[in-house]
Amino acid sequence: MGQPTNRVFSGIQPTGNLHLGNYLGAIKKFVALQDSHECIYCVVDLHAVTAQLVQDDLKNQTREIAAAFIASGIDPAKHIVFNQSQVREHAELAWLFNCVARMGWLQRMTQFKDKAGKNAQNASVGLFAYPNLMAADILLYRATHVPVGDDQKQHLELTRDIAAKFNNDFAAKISEFGHGDEGYFPITDPIIEGPATRVMSLRAGNNKMSKSEPSDMSRINLTDSADDIAKKIRKAKTDPEPLPETMDELADRPEARNLIGIYAALAEKNSQEVLTEFAGQQFGSFKPALAELAVDKLAPINAEMRKLMDDPDHVDSILADGADRARLIAQDTMKEVREIFGFLG
Ligand code: AQP
Can you give the three-state secondary structure of the chain, one letter per residue? Predict the structure, then answer.
């Protein structure tokens, strides 16, 4: 099998509270890549149980992420949308990558340190090995590009290290299968670009907007009503200074920088263009403009998500169909990987 040249893979965990950071850092990019790439978008439910074993209503949370993908404009007929646990090969390749990756590589992962906190001894082995499963998700499809937010950069580097070690350690076997110099797994390129690769909390400009932050006022959820969106932006933490003319002048103003970045990403402009438009204005006039823009962009997605969530059978059939198509690719890869490892049968 030759290497795909423009295949995109990315995923989102069904852990509730899907927010504007997930939308701008990931989903909006997923949509944009559809015209130029072959795309595989996954609800990564096996990842969802790494941090918290018992999930409330995992099935509906899985449907909600799929609904967000489709409501945002991903076409499941042209591309693949599915949930990870329906394609068992993810778990199989992740196990093999547990044997490729080195302890030292995983011990450097900052997300594990952040999520496990002071109680690392009590964290699940799954949370520690999470990046190996993520590498398996991507490399099972031999994806060449992965759109993600900035927080996933280190995991993508680990994916590249795993691919390189596999290609190197099994080089002789891989060339027997006719893969030549390019190796078996691609060295995947992350796509982390634009003004909203790290959307920050609305309450603390140095903290990432996150699903697990207890304060709902810290994030805009994709399920928020127009009134909630406007209220959260109105109450977002800012400072008393007017907006400056250049981005350099925002270096020490994280909350202001964050709101400018959000505006820019929603308006599909760069941050400097937004500052040029609003320079000299106070937040009293910028926030209503941002709220109007956010409602304008997010309300149609919210409405479409609700429609889809009212028809769970339809969403389930999209996920099952996507899983059938994903499985075909995954099985081809695993057949070759098993042969490369030298397993019998
Ligand atoms: N604040 C963010 N800004 C930009 N991108 C973000 N992403 C997450 N937060 C931001 C991107 O969203 C995609 C899916 O993330 P995930 O579901 O795998 O989980 P996560 O990164 O753990 O998301 P959260 O919200 O930050 O959850 P918790 O609270 O559990 O830590 C990824 O591409 C991610 O980069």
Answer: CCCCCCEEEEEECCCCCCEHHHHHHHHHHHHHHHHCCEEEEEECHHHHHHHCCCCCCHHHHHHHHHHHHHHHCCCCCCCEEEEHHHCCHHHHHHHHHHHHCCHHHHHCCHHHHHHHHHHHHHCCHHHHHHHHHHHHHHHHCCCCEEECCHHHHHHHHHHHHHHHHHHHHCHHHHHHCCCHHHCCCCCCEEECCCCCCCCECCCCCCCECCCCCCCHHHCCECCCCHHHHHHHHHCCCCCCCCCCCCHHHHCCCHHHHHHHHHHHHHHCCCHHHHHHHHCCCCHHHHHHHHHHHHHHHHHHHHHHHHHHHCCHHHHHHHHHHHHHHHHHHHHHHHHHHHHHHCCCC
Ligand 1 pocket check: which of 9, 12, 13, 22 to mutate, most ligand atoms within 8 Å of Cβ? 22
| Residues classed as catalytic | 115, 208, 211
Q: What is the pLDDT along the chain (345 residues), one digit of tens a residue?
A: 567 889 999 999 999 889 999 999 999 999 999 999 999 999 999 999 999 999 889 999 999 999 999 999 999 999 999 999 999 999 999 999 999 999 999 999 999 999 999 889 999 999 999 999 999 999 999 999 999 999 999 999 999 999 999 999 999 999 988 776 789 999 999 999 999 999 999 999 999 999 989 999 999 999 999 999 999 999 999 999 999 999 999 999 999 999 999 999 999 999 999 999 999 999 999 999 999 999 999 999 999 999 999 999 999 999 999 999 999 999 999 999 999 999 998
Domain boundaries, the chain: 7-195+311-341, 216-307
CATH number of 7-195+311-341: 3.40.50.620
Please determine whether the domains at 7-195+311-341 and 216-307 fall in the same fold group of CATH.
Answer: no
Tell me the CATH number of domain 216-307, given options 3.30.70.2760, 1.10.240.10, 3.40.50.10240, 2.40.128.630. 1.10.240.10
CA–centroid distance, residue 344 to ligand 1 (Å): 40
